[in-house]
Amino acid sequence: MLELKNITFNAEDEGQSIGIVRDVSLTVEDNKFVVITGPNGGGKSTLAKMVAGIIKNTSGQIFFDGEDITEKSITERARMGIGFAFQQPVRFKGMTVLDILRIAAGRTFSVSEACDYLSEVGLCAKDYIDREINASLSGGELKRIEIATVLARDVKLALFDEPEAGIDLWSFNNLIRIFENMRKDRRGRSIIVISHQERILNIADEIVVIADGKIAKQGSRDIILPEITGTENATNICHKMV
Asked: How far apart are CA 51 and CA 82, in angstroms?
């Protein structure tokens, strides 16, 4: 379980302190699929990066599985089972897909096992296992490979920062199917996705709306989605879209 208690993050701008995230308290129960949404610049990605340990919160506490991880590094949090997928996946010249999967898992496993992870994200293993993580891969391919690394790590908490950014419609449709499968087969992991996309919101167990650095709305998908889309039958509409 993830618990945020009165989390604040202030950024310095020309000598002034600006509140990006302001006194946010949030609990994400085990085995939940949570989508955090809201206006651009509201603090969503900053919040996710604080959970992962990429940036340090100015005040407040972060607990994971009952342990205070506020002062723990990104490496320590990763070892505890927190995984983070960037909005723009990193390219690694000279490193193959097999290499990155093994590094993510922290162990050496067979090509067959690596192929299983690639298959889970809809990639033909024989076409990708020896490919370099470089400019020859499209944005959609990189996103799916990054998700495969999260699966290979078998994390307890998976964080995805706007996974739909920079990919085409075909890749987005595949992304939706991957998240739907992850939701059905969570294997005890919790999933947090930062997203504006209604089709991703429709997969959520819970939706958190963050605006101006604070939680504006929070609750089950069936309650929050109609409120933020402005229609009583938003859930039915979304099911027809999928």
From this structure: 8
**CA-to-CA distance for 79 and 137, rounded, in angstroms?**
28
- Give pLDDT tens digits along the chain (242 positions): 999 999 999 998 877 889 999 999 999 999 999 999 999 999 999 999 999 999 999 999 999 999 999 999 999 999 999 999 876 667 777 889 999 899 888 888 888 999 988 988 888 888 899 999 887 888 888 888 888 888 888 899 999 998 888 788 888 888 898 899 888 887 778 999 999 999 999 999 999 999 999 999 999 999 999 999 875 544 443 443 33
Residue carrying structure tokens 């302190």: 17
pTM over 0.70? The answer is: yes
Residue ranges of domains in the chain, CATH in brackets: 2-241 (3.40.50.300)
